[in-house]
Amino acid sequence: MTNNRGGTAAGTVLGAATVATGLIAGVWFAYVCSVMPALARSDDRVFVEVMRNINDVIQNPVFFTPFFGALILTAIAAWQSRGTPAKPWALAALILYVAVFVVTSAVNVPLNDALAAASEPVRARADFETPWVAWNVVRAGLTAVGFVCLLRALSVRGAGDRGAR
């Protein structure tokens, strides 16, 4: 039994949003701490080839489900949390994830597309690596903070549930 708007279904949506956001935060973090530092050690041809391969294979349902799901589920969770202590946390997470979505769509994806179309590896890498890495750090940070906000939303939602028993 719960006193929060939407009851158990709202808690399930909030939990799913949290998991999806955490998965995407982990993807961006993996690039920050391992993928890009490893590729930085590679020559230009290898760097470009591997990034092109990554950009091709990441376009799959296993990635797209949490990537788009985090946005949709967090929006639903924010709407369902109106009138509860979880609302500001869910809303903050939504704003942060929208920013991640904008950065990805406006910066990282166009850089990926330019890399795919480039013919000269040295020039392609020079135009790609520094801005892509910097903006990936931004989206990793935004997603991680959004994940923490969703954890807090779950926490205050759960505290409200315990108080109603």
Write structural notes for this entry.
The structure is a single chain. The chain has one domain. α1 (7-40) packs antiparallel against α5 (121-163), α3 (61-80) packs antiparallel against α4 and α4 (87-117) runs antiparallel to α5. The longest helix is centred in the C-terminal third of the chain and has 43 residues, at 121-163. The chain is elongated, with a radius of gyration of 19 Å. The protein contains five helices and no strands. The chain starts with 6 loop residues before the first helix and ends with a helix. The model has no long low-confidence stretch (mean pLDDT 93). The protein is mainly α and 165 residues long.
Instruction: Please outline the major beta sheet.
Output: none
Low-confidence spans: pLDDT under 50, at least 5 residues?
A: none
- Average pLDDT over all residues: 93
Order of helices and strands: HHHHH
Cα(first) to Cα(last) distance is 8 Å
* Shape estimate: elongated
Class per helix and strand makeup = mainly alpha
What is the CA-based Rg, rounded? 19 Å
